[in-house]
Amino acid sequence: MSDQVKFVLDETRIPKRWYNLAADLPKPLPPVLHPGTKQPVGPADLEPLFPMALILQEVATEREIEIPEPIRDVYRMWRPSPLIRARRLEQVLGTPAKIYYKYEGVSPAGSHKPNTAVPQAWFNKEAGIKRLSTETGAGQWGSSLAFAGALFGIDVTVFQVRVSYDQKPYRRALMETYGARCLPSPSPETESGRAILAKSPDSPGSLGIAISEAVEMAAKDSQVKYSLGSVLNHVLLHQTIVGQETIEQFELAGDDPDVVIGCVGGGSNFAGLAFPFLGLQLRGGRKRRVIAVEPAACPTLTRGKYAYDFGDTAHLTPLVKMHTLGSTFIPPGFHAGGLRYHGMAPLVSHVYELGLIEARAYQQVTCFQAGVEFARCEGIVPAPEATHAVRCAIDEALRCKQEGKAETILFNMSGHGHFDMQAYINYFEGKLVDQDYDENELAMALAGLPSVAA
Ligand SMILES: Cc1ncc(COP(=O)(O)O)c(C=O)c1O
Question: Which protein residues are within 6 Å of ligand 1, measured from CB?
C-alpha cells in the first residue's frame, strides 16, 4: 500500500450532497445589493437570470444540499475523479514532502467545470428552460456548458473572450461539436459588445465584458436564462464534490494534507477542493494551510480591494462584496484565460478577509516552467490555469526540502492543457513573456468602484 499512486473510489461513493460552507462560517457573507437601491436583493430580483432552484441554492444556509439522482447519474460518467500521488515529481524535486493532486481533467470537457455545468443545465431544464447564454474565458467553461446542454436538450450560446477565441480555435470547435453557438466577445450582437467595440475595435475582451453580453442576452429575452461558470455561491457549492471525494481518498491513503492549494480565477476549483477541508476546521478539526494562487497580471486577492462591485463590465449584474480590481479593469492577454477575471468569488473573498486562507500571485513564465516539469514527471500536461497550482505545490515542496519537513501537499489539477498547446509552443519558442497590468488602468478602475455605505 505504501507505494500506491492512485486513490480511486467506486461510483457508489459519488457524494450524495453538496457541502455549503455558509453553514459553518463564523461571520455571514455580506448581502448581494441591488445596483439601483443599494438594498439587499431578494430571490425574485434574480429570477430573470436564473431558475428559482439555483437562486435558492445561492442563498441557502443549510450545511448540506441533496444532489438529485439524475445529476449523480451524469457525474458517474467521470466521477469520482482520481487522487494521484505525484511520486515521480517528488523524486525529481528530492523533497521529503508528499505531493498529491486531485485530477479533474478526466471530465469530458477536460476540467472541473462540468461539475457545475451539469447541475445548472439540469435545474434549468426542470424549470422548462430551452436556451442558455454564458461567457467563457479559456473555453473550458463554454465547452462544459455546451456538453451539459447537449445532454439535456438545451441550446447554448457562448460569448468567448476574444483573445482566447483567437488563441484556441479547437475549443470553439469542441463547443460546436456539442451543438453550441460560439461568438467572440466583444461581439456586435449585444449593446454591451457594440459599446466596447466602438471605443476599442481591437479589444482583447475580458471575462467581465463577456459576462455583460451573456447577461444582456438573458435579461432581454424571457426564453433565455444565464449561466455562470464560477464566482457565485451555487457554482462553488456544486464544486464541493471535489473536496468531499478527496477527504475520503485521503482516508484510503492513510494520509492528511497539511497544505491545500488551488488556482483562482473566479474561485470555483479552489473552493471545490478547499471548502470541505475548511468546513472540517470550522467544526473543530485541525487547521491546514490553504493557498489560493492567482496570476500576477490579474492579482485580484493580493492587489484588489475588498469592496462592493459589479460582476461585469457593463454593470448589468447586482453588486457583490468581493476582492476586485474594478469592473472596468481589462487584464493583459496572458495565456491562462480562465484566470483573467477582475473579481473573486464573494465566498473566497470572505474567507480570505477572515484569515482562513492565504493568497499568492505568480507570473506566467514560471508557471509554464512548473507545468512542463510536471508533465515530464507525471505525464499530464496541465491547463495554463492549473500550472499556477503546480508552481505553488512545487515551491511548497522545495520549501519542505529546505526545512527538512515531510509535509503533505495537495493541489487541484483543475484541467488538462490539450487545447492549450499553442501556449506551450509559445513557451518553448521563448515567445511567452511575463505581462504586467497597467498600474494607471488599475488605479482608474479602482477609482470607479461604486460607492456603497459601509
Ligand atoms: C482548467 C481551469 N482551471 C481553473 C479555472 C479558473 O476558474 P475557477 O477559479 O472558477 O476554478 C479555469 C477557468 O476557466 C479553468 O479552465
Answer: 111, 137-138, 140-141, 230, 263-270, 338-339, 383, 385-386, 414-415
